[in-house]
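Input:
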Amino acid sequence: MASTNGQEVPPPLQDIPTAKEKKYDRQLRLWGAAGQVALEESHILLLNSGAGVTGVETLKNLVLPGIGQFSILDSAIVTEADLGVNFFVEDASLGRFRAAETVRMLEELNPGVKGHAITETVDTFFDVGKGEVAPFQPYNLIIVAAPIEPTWLTHILHCAQALHIPVFYLHCVGYFSSFAVTLPPAFPIVDTHPDPTATTDLRLLKPWPALAQFAAEKTAMLNESESSMGEEDDATSKEREAAKARRAHDKAHIPYLCLLLHYLEQWKQSHDGNVPATYKEKTAFRNLVRAGDYNEENFDEACTAVLRALNPPTPPSSILDILSAPETHNLTPETPAFWLIANAINQFYTKHNQLPLPGSVPDMKAESSVYVQLQNIYKSKARDDSAEVLATVRELEKETNRPQHLAVDAKEVENFCKGAAHIHLVRGRAFQTAQSDASLRFGDGAKVLAMELSMPESLVGLHLAFLAWDRYIATHSTSAAPEVGGERLRVPGGATTSGADDDDEAYEADVAKVTSIAHTLLDHLITESGTGFLEDPEYSEARERVGKFVRELVRAGGGELHNVASVTGGLVAQEVIKVVTRQYVPVEGVCLFDGVQGRTQVLRV
Amino acid sequence: MAATLQPEGVARTLNGHPESEDSTTSPRWSHMNRLLSRQGAYTDPDEYEPGATPLNNISNSRILVIGAGGLGCEILKNLALSGFRHIDVIDMDTIDVSNLNRQFLFREKDVGSPKASVAANFVMKRCPGCTITPHVGKIQDKDEDFYMQFNVVICGLDSIEARRWINATLVSMVDMDNPDSLKPLIDGGTEGFKGQARVIFPTMTSCIECQLDMHAPRAAVPLCTLATIPRQPQHCIEWAHIIKWEEERKDIILDTDDPEHITWLYQTAIQRAKQFKIEGVTYSMTQGVVKNIIPAIASTNAIIAAACCNEAFKIVTSSAPFLGNPGQNNYMLYTGDSSVYTYTFEHQKKDDCPVCGNLPKGITLDPESTLGEFVESLAERPEAQLKKPNLRTEERSLYYSTPAGLEESTRPNLKRKVREILAEGEEFVVNDPSFPEVTLKYVVRYGT
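Output:
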């Protein structure tokens, strides 16, 4: 270590947390420093409207963990009704712009976060008429709260897709909420944080030489008969006792991995070189291991692991899809690093018929030094595999004339190799929007959705109810010039133009209208999925369920219940964090929350 | 028998008070009022009377919130914005800097102040008309009269011990002749991207003790592994924590919030790790192991806290079916790390529950094992989780962990074999002074 003036400086305390690390400690344990950096580099845009609580609750859950910047576009003025349901306005906010007030009070939550208020409408701020994408460029992710003028939503979605900006579209009405997600057309996630038990890949059926040799050494004693030990003529009984105890100790500390490899060799000898494959064979194999010792913990561990650890490491089909994706094979000089590495992994897989080794070893009963040796055998194989992939990546860079500044980071290759079996690719597609004309198509999602219709527990009816709710708004918005806060949008069950809020007749009329739209959508869905899919009584029951969802939605008249808004704000924020950090596995399609039954469902639409 | 204890009765027992007269007409509550003034799609017109009744029920109920941390802050906000006006909150903790990433009612300047009072003041200032009474202290220090004041209890706790205590207390308070004595208990819990929300109607539905085995404690690493064959960085940290501190600094009480103490443990663990060539000991991991840190984020807390308050709102207003109605779902499990997934189900009440049941639980004991081995296992047995157990049959004391005198006189029994001390078919009970209302009844079966 460098020391100045020959003076010994005491070594500094290593990795004592900084003030920021202390504040964010509980979340850094989940998404780590890289996730935090991604969060801090993000700028989230909320297009707020209507009751406007859910979007603000979402931002609360993003400001707290330290999103870089956020903007709220909202032309509404704070009313009394906001004070009863939104935590980020106060009595003094009455009559002021809701965007400015909510930004100010959200900013108080975290001095490291910058907020911006935009008090214009979507129409003027993004110059919807001109149809340019440029105004969307500053944002990494856009959250749109319903209700919104359908043509604006279409414009936002169009521009965001062109720029590969993820869009969330959320509804929160009474006891129900939903959010739909549109991600970029290819959205890969390397760090999916799979369950640690699912990631263990020990390659016991195909041990490489270093592992096989190590196991043979550690289990050599199992081949010697007990009587041959310590039988020298001059051995005293005391020495014999000591030798016996040593042997018992050693046997009880053979790592279970080595035990399994040892008994696999035995098994193969009596089974024409085959490993146990069927459930029945594995059970028989487990009995063989069990017979090795009936009490010791390491034999227990080995028996427990038999069913899990003796599966050939076949990559899941989702991984094979990535390896055979067009992007993997049509490389250009600017191809994102992910696809270049995928190509290299594919070459590795083709050559070795297995993915690179992840290299981690679960804890097991063993002597410290033996366990560390075993760890090193796995780690060193993982390093070799990763180095082979990296070498291929470097060749591909040359072949594709990749510019120097786009050189793939070796660390990225290493991470990819470690998590290769659990990488996730989202093929983002635009969510459905309900327009005033009858153009809504369910497309290739129709079959899946129609299947859901016959399931009493499914929330597909709620999805249809929300689509119908949107279409009601699309067909009932007045042609008057846009007013502040989207008030020209008429929400079913809400205040009528005459202001007669409690008008029972108008309420029932709205229930009937939205129900009728929802039932039409239901019929379209069945038609699109193939004729005669749903027969009575399933058909009538599905209609009745949809009708109930609609009635409960219209009951709220577009109002938000704070609790439901807060649940939804939590869900949306969580998904935003996943998308922004590119960690964990995000929702694809639409996520519905039913606050009556206390449950959620995700529909791939 | 329990006809007067129907959970729907909770809403009906709240009498109107004049102070709530404005809530039905105030534009402040217009979102909620519109919904509550209409019959719902899932309400029974004979049961639900739209309009003033549900609104009055909200403004007149008294809610107790246990815990003012990650869940507690959210719960207080949610209740205030659901129209509740009489809330009490109890928490013994003070604010730490690591709370600020999610406990949104606290600021840098509040670090060191009691959570309950800072949280109560913040919400009262933001939501005029809502009164929140803070209690800085332990739930165990409050008596039955205190808990009897409330209509609903909502827990946002990180400790199983506190949950078991309040659950047992609320179960023991139920008086079949007094419907007011039945306090719905709503419990939330989170860990990283996962969590649960559950509703308990004490004595009527599955209670927290019935569900205890769903939260089995993590198996502790055996001491001999720590002492002789460490393999993981965590083993080295636990060695520094459990063994080395006792050896070298036993006069200093370990304070896991003192950076000097953590640094000492960290450096001791590093030395140990070097000796065994184990990689991966970090300061952050040291802190995590010795403080048993559970990752926590704002979003999961928001989801679980609001799911709990949504149930409270439905119970008090009857405006929609709620979790916990006997025979219905009472438990929502939430997982958010891979897509979004909830599993909402009915957890069944157990007849042999040590709190709300009365049947003994059959237990298979090896007659050749010692009583001591069984006593030791009680800390980790999912249905028991008792660290200071006292065991007795109807006639004899088997073993008492406390007080010291009884411990000494019963200690020799620990070495005796089960067959010498318990007959097959014999009943015995286990208590723990930490949970006075919990009594585990066992009936012995011999076996291995």
